[in-house]
Amino acid sequence: MIMKVYCKTALSKSKIPGIDYSLNPYIGCQHACIYCYVPSMFNIDFNEWKKPKVKKNIPNVLMKELRKKKRGIVGISTSTDAYQPLELKYEITRKCLNLLLKHGWSIDILTKSKNVLRDLQIIKKFDSAKVGITITTFSNEKWEGGSKAEERLEAIKKFANEEIFTYIFFGPIFPLMSDEEIEYCIEEFISSNVDAIVMDKLHLKKGLLNRLKNTYPDEFNEMKKALLGNFYERAFKKVFEIARGRIKVIKAWD
C-alpha cells in the first residue's frame, strides 16, 4: 500500500549548477538502484526508500509558491524519480508540470523511465525545457532500476526529434565497464541526437559497499579496486576522446 504524506514546501532552493529550485513529487523511489546515495542524505534506510510516499498536496503547495517566488529553472527529480511507476496512477508530476507551464516557468527533468513520454505534449509547450535520461550501462540490469536502457534511449530520441534540449546522464558508470562498452554507449548516445552527455562517478555513501558486495559477490573485490583506483578518470578521458568534436560532454564532479 502506497503511503500519502503532506508537504510544507514544493520548491526547494537547489545547489545544482543551472537549477534554481528542486521539485520532487515523491519521497523514495521504486527503481531502487543499488548505487543510489539519496537515502543516506536523508538518513532513510534503503529498504524503506524502496517504498515511496506520495506528496499528495504538492500541487496545491506549488500553486501558492509560484505566485510568490522569483521565477527560475525547476529541476524535477533531483532526489527521486518523478516518473517512477506510481506516477501513472497518481499523476502528481503531471499536475505540477501543468502549473509550471501555466505560470511560465522553466524546467529540467531527469528520469530513468520511459514514462516521461506520457507528458511529451505538455513539455513541448514550455518556452524553456530540458529533458534528460539516465543510462549507466546497456549490459548489466542489476546495476540500476527503471525502464530498460533501450526503452529509455528510444524515449529521449522522441524528445530530441521535437527539438527539445535533451541530454543523457551517463552515470554512475558501471565500474567494471570495458573501453569497448564505453565506446558502444557513447556511439548509441550520439546516434540518439541528444544535445549533451553528462558523466558521473559512483558516490561512496553509507551502506553502498555492502549493497555492492551482496549484489556482486564474485566481482566485488575487482569492483572495489576499480572504485578506489582511477577508473573514473580513465573512463572520462575515454568518453571525451570518442565524443570530441561530435557532442558536448560535461563532467559532473570535480
Tally of contiguous helical segments: 11
- CATH architecture group name: Alpha-Beta Barrel
Shape: globular
Per DSSP E runs of 2 or more residues, the count of β-strands stands at 11
Element pattern in H and E: EEEEHHEHEHHEHEHEHEHHHE
Describe the sheet with the most strands: 8 strands, mixed
Low-confidence stretches: none
Overall mean pLDDT: 95
Instruction: State the separation between the terminal residues, measured CA to CA.
Output: 41 Å
CATH fold type: TIM Barrel
CATH class: Alpha Beta
How does this structure look, described?
The chain has 254 residues and is of the alpha/beta class. The protein has one domain: TIM Barrel (Alpha-Beta Barrel), CATH 3.20.20.70. The protein has eleven helices and eleven strands. The protein has helices spanning 38-41, 46-49, 58-68, 87-90, 92-102, 120-123, 149-161, 179-191, 208-215, 220-228, 231-243, and strands at residues 3-5, 12-13, 21-23, 26-27, 53-55, 73-76, 106-111, 129-134, 165-170, 196-199, 248-251. The strands form two sheets. Strands 2-3-6-7-8-9-10-11 form an eight-stranded mixed sheet, covered by helices on one side. It is globular, with a radius of gyration of 18 Å.
